[in-house]
Amino acid sequence: MSEAPEGQPPSRRRIAFVVLFHSTCAILSTILSKSALNGIDAPVTLLAFQTTVQVVLLTAIGYFTKWITLSRPVSAWIALLPLTAARLVGILAKTYCLASVNASVYQIARGLLLPFTLMLSLLVLRPRPYYPPLSLGGCAMVMAGFGAGMASDYSQMLTSGKGVLLGVISSFTTAVESVVVKRFLGKSSEGMWQMVWMSNVMAVGFYMPLLVLSGELGTTAALFSSTATAEVSATTRQFLGTALLTGVAGFLLTIATFLQIEVTSPTTHMIVTAARGVAQSAIAVVTLGEPITANRAGSMALILSGSALYGWAKDRYAHSKKGSYLPVAQEAQESQLDTLNKEGR
């Protein structure tokens, strides 16, 4: 995928199309996944189906477009095991979190993603990234939004303690995933598409033992049982159909993420993310019948405003250093890669 030459930003029409495409895929992925989990509470089973669909599509399309190479030495696969493990743990935590909280409050539950990412980047990455004071102010707003939102939801028994805990764990594991991806982008000889494909292929192999460990193997077997009642069969068909759709949405989201990386600045990305969060919550309220409270709305506003402020401050600092149109820089690209695992942040 070609990038716009430096100093020549892409057209507004192209930016609008890419942003709309990316946001639609991200929202669809989250809402459909939550719908499937509402029917059958089987996060690992859902992920196994989703990832398998994505691998099939990536293999078929990537091979013919030369985005990927099917034959790689064993050493290349072994080298990507840490990346695969980080992405697998991250997406498992996100899906378990989604299963435990309302889709409309999902963004609040995972509100510590930005603070955790900043903290881990400062501790692990070298050279150490610089964060302008205003961006840290945005991060503080995000933390305040998370604290207020989760405290209110928990006190009103709208979200369980398990949901709050999974939100924190999910934020941390996604931050770890982001930092791991940053390190691999700097050192791995594999291209981005190749890394995504190889890590997904290996992830499929990990799902079988995970199905056993999670106790979902019986659930998975029951999905294909011929002795199920009509009601169970209907639920099964809905679950499998939704899993298929989310797999396709996840694949399209992968493409959309790469496209958005090429044409948007960090500020645009953060503002779009904020707008998408509002749209996702509204759609969840309408389609899934989830409740919305003033406290949830206020917390969401804090988190999204803080995220937008963070992106704007980082972008302004980058422009002050380079003084020209700047596509999403590598640091911002890497922080977006969690969306490759069907995250609608």
Automatic annotation (TrEMBL):
InterPro entries: Sugar_P_trans_dom (IPR004853), TPT_transporter (IPR050186). Residues 15-310 form the Sugar phosphate transporter domain. It comes from the Eukaryota. Keywords: Membrane, Transmembrane, Transmembrane helix. The chain crosses the membrane at residues 15-32, 44-64, 76-93, 105-124, 130-151, 163-185, 205-227, 239-261. GO terms for cellular component: endoplasmic reticulum membrane. It is a multi-pass membrane protein. The keyword Transmembrane applies. It is found in: Endoplasmic reticulum membrane. Belongs to the TPT transporter family. SLC35D subfamily. PANTHER family: SOLUTE CARRIER FAMILY 35. Involved in the import of GDP-mannose from the cytoplasm into the Golgi lumen. Homooligomer. This is Sugar phosphate transporter domain-containing protein. The lineage of its organism: Eukaryota, Fungi, Dikarya, Ascomycota, Pezizomycotina.
